[in-house]
Amino acid sequence: MSRELDPVIHAQARLRVVVALNTLAHGDQITFPGLKDLLQMTAGNLSVHLGKLEEAGYVEIVKTHKGRTPTTYITLTRQGRRALEDYTAAIRELLDLS
């Protein structure tokens, strides 16, 4: 019996976000504009998907200030890394069934 695909990660845009964040070392962060540019997503679209990932506990979003400029940092949580590992294993299982 194969594993279920995580519907939170399975959406293409959220999968791209999680995979991009997974390339960072554990505990490293990326700014919202940096992630937006990297993924070539609009701010609104990225915000919606980050909200769903944060709700699932897969990303941590920290809003702070650099001087007077608001800055948002995003990092993949330990739970998010585990979810991606499980998702990848489920995909591999599905491919092995072919």
UniProtKB/TrEMBL annotation:
Residues 20-95 form the Winged helix DNA-binding domain. One of its GO terms (molecular function) is DNA binding. The keyword Lyase does not apply. InterPro entries: WH-like_DNA-bd_sf, WH_DNA-bd_dom, WH_DNA-bd_sf. Gene3D superfamilies: Winged helix-like DNA-binding domain superfamily/Winged helix DNA-binding domain. It holds the Pfam family HTH_34. Keywords: DNA-binding. PANTHER family: BSL7504 PROTEIN (PTHR37318:SF1). This is DNA-binding MarR family transcriptional regulator. The lineage of its organism: Bacteria, Bacillati, Actinomycetota, Actinomycetes, Streptosporangiales.
